[in-house]
Amino acid sequence: MILSNPCDEESRPRIIATEKVALLIGNDTYTDLSDLNTPSNDVATIASILKDIGFKVIALRNLTLGEMRNAVREFCQLLPQDGYGFFYFVGHGFEIQDKFMLPVDAPGASKYRRCNSLCEKEVIRDVLEVKPRLFFILLDMCLKVPDRNDNPGIHEELPDVFLYTAQRNLIQQYATTSNLGAYERPTEVNGIYVNHLKKHLAKDIPILNMLKMVQKEIANESADAVDKQVPLTSLTVVNDFYLTDPVTGHPETEARFQKLMALPALDTIVFDNIGWKSFVKIQPHRNCFHNSLDIYITNMARWAVVCRMACEKLQLKLNREDDNLIITIHNLQKTKLPIVLSVTLKHPETAKEIGSYTFDLAQPLITQAHLWFNCSRLINA
């Protein structure tokens, strides 16, 4: 659908998408590779901007290969025909013929293979089968070829082939180009590419104009980056697409997305035995990530607290801010069962148990998508 403004003779017709859907993945905590500092921040930054311009955003962090593939599957089910799809990955990656994203469970630098990674062409193939009006894929990762001396096996590997039918609806953006790295600075919140992208991503201008602005800024970067990171754009589009283009809305996408947003409806809790009352707020971690959950509990300053969950694959962290206790549950994508969280209050001096409350969190957020499912996929077309 095309929308034009008859009152403005100079305005160009605007394309209308059925829906705008984004999948953002940030991997920063690796099992056998070095950790990274900024991917979670980069995802949170982009997610906030895309939400403001009308995207339905699924933001995930620290996924295994199987979880990444299943996240792409869920993304393809959310994205309707003639919609706009936005895919962003930030983390470790490499290039050898094709471009590959490394999951957090990838083997070490001398052992990983293409089969341990998610190929860009696999993602493009799966998404283009949906027939989106636009697919914008942004890879914020190194594109260096693995050293033959350090990792000889990857050069001997017979890779899978991912074929897709080209359409005039694809923009591929890379934070760097072949044989170069994508970098972050320990003193900055975002990686170099997102540090510039965030200034322009929400602008009501054609996507290619926006990307050129980012390219120019990075070309004027300081000496430690300007020659080491050179962004690259590849495209098949002929129309002027804007990330700010309007949508008609798609009921099936809306219903499925709301299912992935599901959270328990709690505002107050009362701890057993002592009748201690607290206000509660439950939301995605950093109000962004759909595989992590933050539970804010007020009126907790006077108590020591112990939390327990049955699922060992979930990661639990406790923090305090003034009178608030913040319980964060990571790795929601790994649980197959409803989440039950027990919170016990203890006397800070005697450690005597004073009261308790059990949260029945059901299956919140991305748990509904069953990213743990190990399905066999046909990867050769």
TrEMBL record:
InterPro entries: Caspase-like_dom_sf (IPR029030), Caspase-related_regulators (IPR052039), Pept_C14_caspase (IPR011600), Pept_C14_p20 (IPR001309). PROSITE patterns: CASPASE_P20 (PS50208). Residues 18-95 form the Caspase family p20 domain. GO terms for molecular function: cysteine-type endopeptidase activity. One of its GO terms (biological process) is proteolysis. Pfam families: Peptidase_C14. This is Caspase family p20 domain-containing protein.
